[in-house]
Each structure stands twice: as C-alpha cells, then as structure tokens.
Amino acid sequence: FYKRKMGLDINLFRKEKGGNPDLIRESQRRRGDSVEVVDEIIQLDTEYREVLTAQNNLNREKNLISKKFNEVRKAGGDMEAVKAESNQLKKDIAQYEVTANELKQKL
Question: What CA–CA distance (Å, rounded) separates 34 from 61?
Fold first, then answer.
C-alpha cells in the first residue's frame, strides 16, 4: 500500500529506526493528500512486526519440542502428548504466517 501510494521506505515511518513520520505527514499535508494514511501505515507495520515476533517465538518453541520429542522417544515415554503439542504449534505458526502475509499485502 505505502509503496504503491507513496514509494517510501518503511523505515522512514519507524521512529526507532531513525525515521520521522511527522515529516511524512507534513509532506502529505503540503500535497493536499491524506495525513491519516501515515498513521494507518504505522499501525499496520506495528501489527505486522508483532505477528512476526509471535511467529518466531512459536518457531523457537517448536524447535524445543523437537528436542523434547527425541528425549521422550529415547526414554520410551508417551509420544502422543508431545505430538499433539507439536501439531498445535504447527497450526498456530501457519495461522500467524497467514496473518503476516495479509498484513504485508495491506502494507
């Protein structure tokens, strides 16, 4: 969205990356364009990064479960509980991936 509309690097919208959204708002205002679009882009970007962080955390957890799976298997323990946990994590990761892709498309 912002690339098609504005053609700007997303980091210009991110204060923590040295960007200055106020300059973009002022530019929008001077051209007579909507200033609200800047806030929409910032909100979408924030949501997108939160989803990616959650997805990465789940991937780390999935990796830990893989190790746990091997430990339980070697110990001759109940694999079903570990399999169920692993399957649920895979579903959750897939859902976050869908959400991340939807947000990226909006950006």
Answer: 42
Q: Are 40 and 2 in contact (CB under 8 A)?
A: no
In angstroms, rounded to a whole number, what is the distance separating the alpha carbons of residues 11 and 9?
Answer: 5
Closest CA to 106 of 61, 45, 56: 45
Please name the residues in contact with 28: beta carbons below 8 A apart, sequence gap of 6 or more.
34, 35, 37, 38
Are the CB atoms for 94 and 54 separated by under 8 Å? no
DSSP reduced 3-state for 6: coil
DSSP H helical ranges for 6-35: 21-31
Condensed to tens digits (0 to 9), the pLDDT of residues 12-49 reads: 999 999 999 999 999 999 999 999 999 999 999 999 99
Six-digit token string for 76: 């001759």
Predicted model pTM: 0.80
